[in-house]
Amino acid sequence: MNELSLKYGCNPNQKPSRIFMKNGAELPVEVLNGKPGYINFLDAFNSWQLVKELKAATGLPAAASFKHVSPAGAAVATELSDTLKKIYFVDDLELSPIASAYAKARGADRMSSYGDWVALSDTCDAQTATLLAREVSDGIIAPDYTEEALEILKTKRKGNYNVVKIDPNYTPEPIEHKDVFGITFEQGRNELKIDEEMITANIPTKNKELPPEAKRDLLIALITLKYTQSNSVCYAKDGQAIGVGAGQQSRVHCTRLAGNKADIWWLRQHPKVLGLQFVDNIRRPDRDNTIDVYISDEYEDVLRDGTWQNLFKVKPEPLTDEEKKEWLAKNTGVSLGSDAFFPFGDNIERAKKSGVQYVAQPGGSIRDDNVIETCDKYNMTMAFTGIRLFHH
Q: What mean pLDDT is predicted for residues 260-281?
């Protein structure tokens, strides 16, 4: 089959819609369940490339959680701490390596991952399917599925959950095309290989230390950025993206957006958050929203109007600004990647507030000296990759 008709394009009024192979070749994907749409396939193909490259670069099973053609989270399989298991709501599950990768990818920014598209580098097993069965999600792409996993996934969304299988050996043509306003654009595919050499060849800062965990996390950040709508910045720690700032017109706004997400990820691990006593039978999305409100300044309104009684068994004490500041100061060893150069040192100043110690960016700004000087002020290690990673 070299063509697949879709219900509609980006919006219901955009018809007809289909995916097809211009050269008459067979499509490299098979729909095993459901009926994926136009945006679903955009997410599927971008996310598949991300996890395939993450697996190749790190040697570890990889997963991504995509929304609107950008990753909400991406991760490789590493051991999850008890705290992370709790804040990702998987402390009651036995997790295989690929399941743990997805738990981390979704857990980084659970609010953004609501209704996500899932990508797995490895075969989807029953443990991953069990985790996914209880989350709100639009679909999944993977190179294969066990029989048990497929049966579990087919029970989602009243039997309409989108399940796509992709040929892992598929290689696209080296030249790609895109139509905009009736005009065809053509370019060479971004076949750039992101590896350790890219982040170790040119380190202009005084501190040149890059431990193995930092190298891994910088690879995760850069590969994530390769498939994130630009401008974009990604914070990473413990084998996963912890904050992605996508599609901003200003570089420092990317850094702030991603940094705020990284801060929320860390604040969710605060003892007060872990100790919240929710009412029985609260839905996971409501719990996610409530935690986000509790961490934010909006919680004072919840206390004032009494709605906390609909959410908690016991009235929680607020997380004060001083407590937040003290807890955030404990987050260290964070890695940061940028898809283009930092034009000013203000990006580094903001990154420092979220525990960044390691930075990878292309370099090439007329103010590189200022950026290097700012990194040196905080004893950060910064690599110049020499490569821009714009994605549109």
A: 94
Q: How many CB atoms lie within 10 A of CB 277?
A: 10
Mean pLDDT, rounded, for 61-77: 96
How far the first Cα of the chain sits from its last, in Å, is: 28
The amino acid occupying position 11 is N
Query: 46, 231, 331, 347: which is the annotated catalytic residue?
Result: 231
Encoding tokens for residue 345? 């040192």
Residue 37 CA to residue 27 CA, distance in Å, equals 15
Q: What whole-number distance in Å separates Cα of residue 284 and Cα of residue 159?
A: 21
The one catalytic residue among 55, 67, 261, 270: 67
Q: Is the whole-model pTM more than 0.90?
A: yes
Catalytic status, residue 68: yes
35 classed as catalytic: no
Active site residue 392: yes
pLDDT tens digits, one per residue of 360-391 = 999 999 999 999 999 999 999 999 999 999 99
Question: Is 177 a known active-site residue?
Answer: no
User: Helix, strand, coil: what percent of the chain each, to 5?
Assistant: 40, 20, 40
The pLDDT tens digits for 105-132 are: 999 999 999 999 999 999 999 999 999 9
Which residues on adjacent β-strands are paired with residue 31? 164
